[in-house]
């Protein structure tokens, strides 16, 4: 495969609103030891990209300064020490950054085959949400069959994935969303109960059911003490973001008396080894769910790479349901 010297990309010359995303020409990245170069067909858009664009989520050392945490395409070149992949293989991959571009490099162990039954477009939407949901819900949160699971933001990229994986694991799934249409979409994905948080109180609903065994939360703020109230005895709360702020007053006596666990994580700064472990878990546990039709990415909309600003504006309107993709 003959590779060009330059590629089309979208970069962030100055932090700001969606208009801060500007088309640009950039040099092709070079795969180092243990890395592969992927010619991307599609890239997924995620909230953390918007945080980076706004100047609030810096790429980790060594990562591309371009936004974009996931994508799909074909392996275009291989760095030293890579044995699993060959040039031309179709893959989807978690990226350390750099997905808003024609070519991106990533650790070879953070790439996965395109799951059976999916195309490149759908596969591009999997890595960031699947790595995040599986590592927090299953590995950190320990969700088990028969447990009551609550995920906030059910219509988000994360939420639509968490609902389906939790259901496939045999949990009873509760979710919150901000409109009747979003709640309907969550029920369509298999949620047992979708709570329109503008009309109903998730704490009362969960308490009436015996409390949540596990809550996956991205909202934070006033939800933190409310989540604690909604948890069952020995319940776990896993925090993956703070859309409404990280600082609250909390009565820790409740945590102690009901033996609760509060934890959380962010994916991007974790080690290559940790991400490789998550990738292996996904291939073992989640890829078979996709092959048997239990998990399908829900795609809200698609934009050409050069319209990344429009994609971010749509995401920040919160009108979307599911994932937004960029076509390279
Ligand atoms: N920890 C990690 O490693 C990790 C990795 C990936 C993503 N995340 C986080 O997970 C969250 C979801 O990511 P995503 O890409 O799936 O996002 P997304 O699709 O844009 O969804 C965010 C959803 O959150 C809901 N929401 C609730 N309160 C909100 C508020 N104050 N402002 C904006 N939206 C609010 C909105 O739905 P309603 O209309 O129902 O309110 C919105 O659709 C983000 O906060 C992201 O930063 C964390």
Automatic annotation (TrEMBL):
<dbReference type="InterPro" id="IPR036291">
    <property type="entry name" value="NAD(P)-bd_dom_sf"/>
</dbReference>
<dbReference type="GO" id="GO:0070402">
    <property type="term" value="F:NADPH binding"/>
</dbReference>
<dbReference type="InterPro" id="IPR013149">
    <property type="entry name" value="ADH-like_C"/>
</dbReference>
<feature type="domain" description="Enoyl reductase (ER)">
    <location>
        <begin position="16"/>
        <end position="326"/>
    </location>
</feature>
<dbReference type="InterPro" id="IPR013154">
    <property type="entry name" value="ADH-like_N"/>
</dbReference>
<keyword id="KW-0560">Oxidoreductase</keyword>
<dbReference type="GO" id="GO:0016651">
    <property type="term" value="F:oxidoreductase activity, acting on NAD(P)H"/>
</dbReference>
<dbReference type="Pfam" id="PF00107">
    <property type="entry name" value="ADH_zinc_N"/>
</dbReference>
<dbReference type="InterPro" id="IPR014189">
    <property type="entry name" value="Quinone_OxRdtase_PIG3"/>
</dbReference>
<dbReference type="InterPro" id="IPR011032">
    <property type="entry name" value="GroES-like_sf"/>
</dbReference>
<dbReference type="InterPro" id="IPR020843">
    <property type="entry name" value="ER"/>
</dbReference>
<protein>
    <submittedName>
        <fullName>NAD(P)H-quinone oxidoreductase</fullName>
    </submittedName>
</protein>
<dbReference type="Pfam" id="PF08240">
    <property type="entry name" value="ADH_N"/>
</dbReference>
<keyword id="KW-0521">NADP</keyword>
């Amino acid at each position: 495969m003959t590779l060009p010297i330059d590629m089309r990309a979208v970069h962030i010359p100055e932090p700001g609103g969606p208009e801060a995303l500007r088309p640009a020409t950039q040099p092709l990245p070079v795969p180092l030891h243990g890395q592969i170069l992927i010619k991307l067909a599609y890239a997924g858009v995620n909230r953390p990209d918007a945080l980076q664009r706004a100047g609030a989520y810096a790429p980790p050392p060594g990562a591309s300064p371009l936004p974009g945490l996931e994508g799909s395409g074909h392996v275009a070149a291989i760095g030293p020490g890579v044995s699993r992949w060959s040039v031309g293989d179709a893959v989807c991959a978690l990226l350390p950054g750099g997905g808003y571009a024609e070519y991106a490099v990533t650790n070879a162990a953070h790439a996965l085959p395109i799951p059976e039954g999916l195309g490149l477009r759908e596969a591009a939407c999997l890595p960031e949400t699947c790595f995040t949901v599986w590592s927090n819900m299953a590995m950190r949160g320990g969700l088990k069959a028969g447990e009551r699971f609550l995920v906030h933001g059910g219509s988000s990229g994360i939420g639509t994935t968490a609902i389906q994986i939790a259901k496939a694991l045999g949990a009873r799934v509760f979710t919150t969303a901000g409109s009747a249409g979003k709640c309907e979409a969550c029920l369509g994905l298999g949620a047992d109960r979708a709570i329109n948080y503008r009309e109903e109180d998730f704490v009362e609903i969960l308490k009436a059911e015996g409390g949540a065994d596990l809550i996956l939360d991205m909202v934070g703020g006033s939800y933190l003490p409310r989540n604690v109230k909604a948890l069952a005895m020995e319940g776990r709360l896993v925090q993956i973001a703070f859309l409404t702020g990280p600082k609250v007053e909390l009565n820790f006596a409740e945590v102690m008396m009901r033996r609760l666990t509060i934890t959380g994580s962010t994916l991007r700064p974790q080690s290559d080894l940790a991400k490789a472990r998550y990738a292996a878990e996904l291939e073992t546990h989640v890829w078979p769910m996709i092959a048997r039709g239990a998990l399908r990415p829900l795609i809200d909309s698609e934009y050409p790479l050069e319209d990344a600003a429009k994609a971010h504006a749509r995401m920040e309107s919160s009108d979307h349901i599911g994932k937004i993709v960029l076509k390279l």
